[in-house]
Every structure is written in structure tokens, then in C-alpha cells.
Protein: FAD dependent oxidoreductase domain-containing protein
Organism: marine metagenome
Amino acid sequence: KLETEIGIDIHWGGSFEWHALKENQKILTQEIEIQQGYGVPIHMISGDQAHELEPNVKFDKEANMAFSESDGAVDSNEVVNKFLKKTINLGGQVLYPVTYENAIVKDRKIVAVRTSIGEIEADRVVFACGLDTDELLNIDVLKKSEPEIILRTQPMKKVIDRVIVMPSFHIHQENDGTVIIGATNTMEEAAVGALPGAPISHLERLASMPESFPDEALEKQHSERILAIAQQFVPELKTVELEEVVIGWRPLPHDERPVVGHVKNIPGTYLATMHSGVTLAPIIGELVAMELLDGTETNLLADFRPDRFI
């Protein structure tokens, strides 16, 4: 629906996912069975079957992986920009850069928000602030965030048609040929800087949650390590040139499930925060809009309300 409404460039091709740790693989299998119960076109395939679908990728022949046929990928920055443009075209206002300072509450109701450009009258405020959620609302719904390194290459010929989630990294190729590689560390589920023996200086740098590396040497060290791992599975990446290397920080609720709904101790406040923000944005946006505009509460969000933490 959104693909046609706002002209989002989605690359549909499906996805592969598997894990090195047996416990994680067991959980993945259970999740597949649940999705199959809802009619989702997803099933387990072998490494050889995956190679037939992705001939440029070297899969472990012994691996069993999930193949989700209906998954797609987007350029999240492009999607956000198109949403903003559509908002303005529909008469909405986008204020940027603006810093939120606090909410002005009278008689236990929000009447305005105080910002770096002054007060803005409002009787309802939606907080979709990711990592800053706890600090802005003085609540505790998120656990410590872990960083992920994201590599963005210069456009190259088509080598991958699907989103591929491997034990130590994930990779997909956009329609313009750009390859996106995201990695934590070579140890499955280990965050950047969390491996044993990480120097104190490195951990101190991460404490400030930087979005880039402090110098080119450190950036090169990390990017080359990740690219080398990716090249083992996709040899054609050996000639690729990197365009951008960034550090991304993921908002992670304590139970790793979305937190969506009214914050009851602050009337007029609505919260929407989760890890899989881009993936869930279409359905969450539709449900949140329905709840706010119609004054209703949908059972689809019943298990994700903020009051399980607040």
C-alpha cells in the first residue's frame, strides 16, 4: 500500500536467515512454525537450495536456513525523506533541527511542549524517539543499547537478490546496486566492543554512543574486518569500494518487544519505540494513527503496552 502511495522503492526478493548457535537456530525454527500458522510463505531450506537461488553466495552446505519468500528491503533514509515530503504536501509541518526540552503539564494534562525554538501548543504528543525515549520521558523501558557497524558500498553490478542474515553479519543489495552490510562482531550476537579483552579506551568511547569512528585508522580496521568476512561468502565483493561507514545504535526494549501506547501517568503522551523500526513502521503507523484519531485501542497492540514497564 505505502509502496504505491508514496512511491517507495522496495526491492522484493525474500530473505535467508540462519544461526551458528544451536539454541538460536532452535528459536528460529519455532518462530517459523508460528509464522506458518498465519499463512506466511516461509520454510526451511538447505544450503544447496539456497545456492541455487543465490549462485553468487557461498553457503554452508550443512546449514539449514529460513527462506521467507515475501520479504523486501528499502533504503531507510530515502523512505524517511519521502515520508517527510508527503507530510508537507498534505499540509503538515516539519520542524528541523529542533530539540525537545520538556512537556508543559497543567491539571495532569499536556498543554504544550517546550523546545529549542519555543513552546508549541499540543494536547497530545507522540514520542517516537528511539534511543532517547527513557531520558526524554524519565521512564525505564529500554535496556542498554548495543552498536552495529554499517558499511555502504558504491553501486556495483547485481550480485545478491535477497536479504541474507548470517551468523556474524547481514547483507542485501539495493536496486541501484549499493550493497549494505551490517555487523556486530564475528562472534554471533556479540556487540561491537563487547568481546573479551576490549581496551578500556574503546569501551569509554562507546559509552558516549558515537555515530562515527574517532579516526580513519580505526574505521578502516573495523570496515576491512567486516568486509573480509562478507567476501568469504560473496567473493564478488572483493572489488567493491566503500562509500560510507557508520555506527548504528539500536533501541532495545527490556523484553525486546515493541512498546506502543498511551503513557497513563502522563495524560496526552503516546509512546512508540522498538528495535525493528523500519520493518514495523507501516503497520505500527497505521495502528497508532487509528488509536489517536478514533480514540480506540486495538487488541493487536495489547501485548505491547508501556504499562508492562511503567
